[in-house]
Write a structure and sequence with these properties.
The complex is a heterotrimer of chains A (about 525), B (about 230) and C (about 325).
Chain A lengths: L6 H28 L8 H34 L5 H8 L1 H4 L2 H12 L4 H8 L10 H25 L3 H9 L4 H29 L3 H7 L7 H10 L4 H25 L20 H28 L8 H32 L4 H8 L5 H12 L9 H39 L3 H30 L4 H4 L7 H9 L4 H27 L6
Helix pairs in contact in A: 1-12, 1-14, 1-15, 1-16, 2-7, 2-9, 2-13, 5-13, 7-9, 7-10, 9-12, 11-12, 13-21, 14-15, 14-17, 14-18, 14-20, 15-17, 17-18, 18-21, 20-21
Chain B lengths: L1 E10 L2 E9 L4 E5 L6 H9 L6 E6 L2 E2 L10 E4 L11 H6 L10 H13 L15 H15 L3 E4 L8 H18 L2 E5 L3 H7 L2 E6 L2 E2 L3 E2 H6 L3 H7 L2
Parallel strand pairs in B: 2-10, 3-8, 3-9, 6-7, 7-8
Antiparallel strand pairs in B: 1-2, 1-4, 4-5, 9-10, 9-11
Chain C lengths: L5 H12 L6 E5 L2 H4 L5 H12 L2 E5 L4 H11 L7 E6 L3 H4 L3 E2 L19 E13 L10 H6 L4 E4 L5 H14 L3 H8 L3 E5 L2 H9 L5 E5 L2 H9 L4 E3 L6 E11 L5 H11 L2 H6 L1 H4 L2 E2 L20 E2 L3 H19 L2
Parallel strand pairs in C: 1-2, 1-3, 6-7, 6-8, 10-12
Antiparallel strand pairs in C: 3-10, 4-10, 5-8, 5-9, 5-10, 5-11
Helix pairs in contact in C: 7-14, 8-14
The chains are: A mainly alpha (about 525), B alpha/beta (about 230), C alpha/beta (about 325).
Chain lengths: ~525, ~230, ~325
């Protein structure tokens, strides 16, 4: 079913598209344009490329594979505190890298809890440094995202199907083959691609835990080209390679993505979950993942809480600025995601465009924008809007991953009915799409706000003194021996990010948005 | 009168042609083997499938160029006739105003339609809280409210038991009678056809034949229908 | 030229109010310089007290970020003075700079007569350790190689201390540098993108030693009353980090810029630096140094490659380093 899009929507889509193209291609173009001379591609770059792909691939596979039992357990079990646990388990994804790494080290580091336990048991200590550490940290960050994406897949399995499988006496294998497998075949490629793309531009994690130049990623090579060699041509070339890999991954994803099934139910409740052995495995999956994700968070809290009262006014002001930036960023994200979702119901380009931000190097976007803006306006004056814009674009891929499947599903199920009743685009969006999309929209906006809150990307290039955000301030404290205050700022940041996420998910998503 | 002039619908390797007309007020059962294109025919009339050739006319006016909602008809699908997140009242009210901004008179009309279809008191329920029969009635309440001159039924009651289905068909008959609507109804059951329709339109072998009187056709079915009916 | 958007305006209001009509001196520096606990706020207050001007800092990140900002802005820059480049970075910045004109005698462990770059503070790179965990630290790179200790260093491709260590090994060992790195490889727990991450790992107890400065322990002694951190003295000598300030040739406030350079070398500014930047002052103030600085090691000899040598050696040294550690 195609319904002509109203002119207003078309205009908005054109604007959004222009903004995103400017961000992704314009920034890269600006850097390349300023480049002088050619840039060679050496043996070290091949090594960096290989490591980048390998670690991103492993991180994606482990994150998603581990997320499957966790998401299934969370989807079918009901227990007190389940909602809160799901929210908390999402926290690592929105944590600033540095905070998360410190939390992770407190548990898995050389002097961490885990190694202390192993030592007590007389076992050899584990080392977190090296490829295993990089992948572990990436799984720590991305398992929560993968769980959420898969949970949405489970939420879209009609209760009727589960009833049917219960009625037919399906065991775990039959249920997987007939109900969960087909759903996973639709959701897993997308989740894999998202995690792969996130890890593709990894830099600080890969370097800090990678153990040395073996763990050089392309993003680090870009960083070096900018900072030390001041070789813009080389930076642009490396960024283009990185973007090319990302786009290839996206194209592969587009080929792998199966169409949404046409069979849906009436939102009836799922039957009680299976008991027996699956009860034990579910408990194990939830317990183990909660420990893995929450103990490092607890360590961050334990270390930072005592310092919270000692934080200076500068830190609190920075927190206020972060909240303002996140608010603006979230509003922009809402517009971007809304327009692109509506357009993506009938076309393919909006999805590709929205996902493209994942393939771009944050450093290149920041520098490119700086080059574009600098001749006209003092970049410091644009620190807030530019940061908000870039953060919105960076969160857009996650928002679309959450929104599009639900939107396409709603469209497949109800577009005919809507058309036969003569619902206008606006009425269709309001009465049909929105109620079906509230929940993923709440998740997407919450995620956008939280990611923006913790971002330490372009703002660094643009902000001037007095314009620091909380992550910047936290990083500075750490860079000035003040690890205690920095830990306090980390707690504040964690609280703000999680708070924004929970608030938006609840307010926008509603408690039971679509039943 | 509904007229299909040299109409052809092609989809992939599938092709269906129709050269027929249905008189106003007629009640037509659409029958034929599974996969013959019964739903395709109704989908084309309702505007969900484009014609590759020919025209569709209602009372001499061309309708195949109109958007689905602009065509003078109501359609009920096999499923997805109700939005699961909207209340019964809202689902029916959509028939009057697709943006759900109703004035008091319209609200009253919705309540009346619910009353006439035996759904009083269930206004606030969501579809998941309704029985199969109630869901069928809700679709019909909306058809009643829209009062379009042509009603297309794509087996909306296929899942119901025989007794319940008969009730629904009786209700359809009453609604068609009240509004004077022309009825096209897909069915597999000759009993349904005898009960409600005065003519049968056979869809088989890539062709939709002009409707013929029910009794005669069922007594002496053409080969395609005979094979399907197993007589 | 101002285009304050409504949102940006909120943030700019205070900055704009302070601006009035006084001439503005734009100073580009690294971010920890301008932090509220850094030297920036005190330097600004002291200088503005009698310059009749408005000193504005811009701090786009660390020293390398600052240099790349300067090069990105090129001729369009409105920066008047750059504070915080070190000797490994100044070769690239040289062509943009004008003579500073300051004649003050400097208290550096080496001779310094660069007309463009004026040192304002300095320290030696050193491996810092915790005396409660390590009784006898290694006394040379070779001893470190033969030990079973773990160290955290910074990546020379993304941080100035990392680059400093690269130059240290090169200055001390020349052609043997590659062999030293190969020997060090098993001792290196990990390589971090910046100083903060490395020092954080060390404080967490992840590694026995971290590449930092001989003056780092002064922070713990003075600010935290903690005397357990110390720098290991290496027999090869220690590489110097000399932080310099310079006037951008395209400045529209040459007078004010020269006035600022002179101020930076004065007692007033120099007394601020040790306990905010945790480095030695380039000119020892009359008040001397706080007690926390007294017990620190003062290694000899001091190593330092000239700016041009540092630039020429960087790429081959980087290749050696990568080669040795990538195995």
């Amino acid at each position: 079913m195609t319904r002509p899009a109203p002119a207003l929507l078309k205009g908005a889509a054109a604007l959004v598209a222009a903004a995103l193209v400017l961000l992704n291609l314009g920034a890269l173009g600006a850097v390349a344009w300023r480049a002088e001379g050619g840039a060679g591609w050496g043996a070290a770059d091949w090594a960096a490329l290989r490591f980048t792909l390998w670690q991103a691939f492993l991180s994606a596979v482990f994150s998603v594979a581990l997320a499957i039992p966790v998401a299934r357990a969370l989807a079918r079990r009901r227990f007190p505190g389940r909602g809160a646990l799901i929210v908390l388990m999402g926290a690592p994804f929105i944590l600033p890298v540095l905070v998360a790494v410190i939390g992770l080290l407190a548990v898995m580091g050389r002097n961490g809890l885990l190694n202390d336990l192993l030592a007590l048991a007389g076992l050899p200590r584990l080392s977190i440094y090296g490829l295993q550490g990089v992948v572990l940290a990436h799984v720590f960050f991305n398992l929560p995202l993968a769980v959420r994406l898969l949970l949405q897949g489970w939420a879209r399995v009609p209760g009727e199907h589960l009833r049917l499988s219960a009625a037919l006496g399906f065991g775990a294998r039959a249920r997987f083959r007939h109900v969960e497998g087909p759903m996973l075949a639709r959701v897993v490629p997308g989740a894999l691609a998202v995690v792969f793309l996130i890890c593709l531009t990894s830099f600080a994690v890969a370097l800090t835990l990678g153990g040395g130049p073996r763990a050089t990623t392309l993003e680090l090579a870009i960083y070096q080209a900018f900072r030390f060699d001041f070789d813009l041509g080389r930076a642009a070339m490396l960024a283009a390679v990185q973007a090319g890999i990302g786009l290839a991954a996206l194209l592969l994803l587009a080929r792998l993505t199966l169409p949404e099934g046409r069979i849906a139910g009436l939102d009836r409740d799922a039957p009680p979950p299976p008991g027996g052995l699956s009860k034990v495995t579910d408990a194990l999956a939830i317990g183990a993942s909660a420990l893995f994700l929450l103990v490092p968070l607890a360590m961050v809290l334990i270390r930072g809480l005592p310092w919270l009262s000692d934080l200076s006014a500068g830190v609190w002001w920075a927190a206020l600025r972060s909240v303002a930036t996140a608010a603006l960023s979230t509003a922009l994200l809402g517009v971007f995601a809304g327009v692109l979702t509506l357009m993506a119901l009938t076309r393919r380009w909006p999805e590709a465009l929205g996902m493209a931000a994942l393939t771009a190097s944050p450093l290149v976007i920041g520098t490119g924008l700086f080059l574009i803006v600098n001749p006209w306006v003092d970049p410091a004056h644009l620190a807030l809007p530019v940061t908000a814009l870039v953060n919105a674009a960076m969160a857009l891929p996650f928002a679309l991953r959450a929104l599009l499947p639900a939107a396409r599903r709603a469209e497949a199920d109800f577009a005919r009915l809507s058309a036969s009743l003569g619902l206008s685009m606006a009425a269709h969006a309001r009465l049909v799409l929105w109620p079906r999309l509230r929940r993923p929209a709440g998740f997407a906006l919450g995620l956008g706000a939280a990611l923006s809150m913790g971002d330490l990307g372009v703002i660094v290039l643009f902000a001037q003194t007095g314009g620091e955000t909380l992550p910047m301030q936290m990083h500075r404290l750490m860079g000035a021996y003040r690890s205690g205050e920095s830990a306090g700022a980390a707690v504040l940041l964690l609280a703000l990010s999680l708070g924004a996420f929970v608030a938006l998910e609840r307010i926008v998503g509603g408690r039971h948005a679509d039943t | 009168m509904l007229t299909l002039e040299g109409a052809e619908i092609a989809q992939g390797g599938f092709r269906l042609t129709a050269e027929l007309s249905v008189p106003e007020g007629a009640r037509v059962a659409v029958m034929g083997p599974s996969g013959a294109g019964k739903s395709t025919l109704l989908g084309a009339i309702a505007g969900f499938l484009p014609l590759t050739r020919g025209r569709i006319l209602w009372q001499g006016q061309r309708i195949d160029t109109l958007a689905p909602a602009a065509r003078p008809l109501s359609i009920l699908f096999q499923d997805h006739n109700l939005f699961p997140h909207l209340s019964l009242f809202d689902n029916v009210a959509l028939g009057l105003d697709p943006s759900l901004r109703l004035d008091p008179a319209q609200r009253q009309a919705v309540l009346t339609a619910l009353d006439e279809t035996g759904l009083s008191g269930l206004e606030d329920r969501k579809p998941a809280q309704l029985s199969g029969g109630q869901i069928g009635r809700a679709g019909l309440a909306r058809v009643l409210l829209r009062a379009r001159p042509l009603i297309l039924l794509d087996e909306p009651f296929a899942a119901l038991g025989p007794a319940l289905k008969r009730q629904m068909l009786a209700l359809v008959g009453r609604i068609a009678g009240e509004t004077g609507a022309t009825l096209l109804m897909i069915t597999h059951d000759p009993e349904d056809a005898r009960l409600l329709s005065d003519q049968i339109l056979v869809v088989a072998e890539g062709q939709a034949s002009p409707p013929a009187p029910t009794g005669a056709l069922l007594e002496d079915p053409p080969p395609a229908l005979a094979a399907y009916l197993g007589t | 030229m101002r285009y304050p958007t409504l949102a940006a305006g909120l943030f700019m209001a205070s900055a704009m109010a302070a601006q009035a009509q006084a001439p503005v001196l734009h100073v580009l520096t690294y971010d920890s310089f301008v932090a509220e606990w850094g030297p920036g706020p005190q330097i600004e207050a002291a200088f503005e007290a009698d310059c009749g001007c408005d000193l504005q800092f811009a701090a786009p990140g660390d020293a390398a970020a600052m240099l790349s900002r300067l090069l990105l802005e090129g001729a369009r820059t409105d920066v008047d003075v750059v504070v915080g480049l070190d000797t490994n970075l100044i070769a690239q910045a040289g062509p943009l700079m004008a003579p500073h004109g300051v004649e003050t005698a400097l208290d550096l462990p080496i001779a310094w007569d660069d007309p463009l770059f004026l040192p304002y503070d300095w320290s030696w790179f050193a491996f810092v350790y915790d005396t409660t965990r390590l009784a006898t630290p290694p006394a040379s790179f070779r001893e470190l190689i033969d030990s079973d200790l773990s160290v955290v260093i910074q990546d020379p491709r993304s941080s100035t201390p990392g680059l400093g260590l690269l130059m240290w090994v090169k200055a001390a060992y020349g052609d043997e540098a590659a062999a030293i790195w190969q020997g060090l490889a098993p001792r290196i727990l990990t390589v971090t993108p910046g100083w903060s991450e490395a020092y954080g790992l060390f404080l967490e107890g992840e590694a026995d030693m971290v590449l930092s400065y001989t003056t780092s322990p002064a922070y713990h002694i003075i600010a935290e009353g903690d005397a357990t951190k110390a720098a290991a003295r290496f027999d090869e000598g220690h590489y110097l980090q000399v932080e310099v300030a310079s006037i951008v040739a395209s400045t529209d406030q040459p007078e004010l810029a020269r006035q600022f350079m002179a101020f930076l070398a004065s007692d007033a500014a120099q007394a601020i630096l040790p306990e905010t930047n945790w480095m030695y002052p380039a000119v020892l103030p009359e008040s001397g140094l706080a007690e926390g600085f007294q017990g620190l090691i003062r290694p000899e000899p001091s190593l330092l490659l000239s700016a041009d040598e540092a630039l020429t050696l960087r790429d081959p040294a980087l290749a050696e380093w990568r080669e040795a550690l990538a195995q």
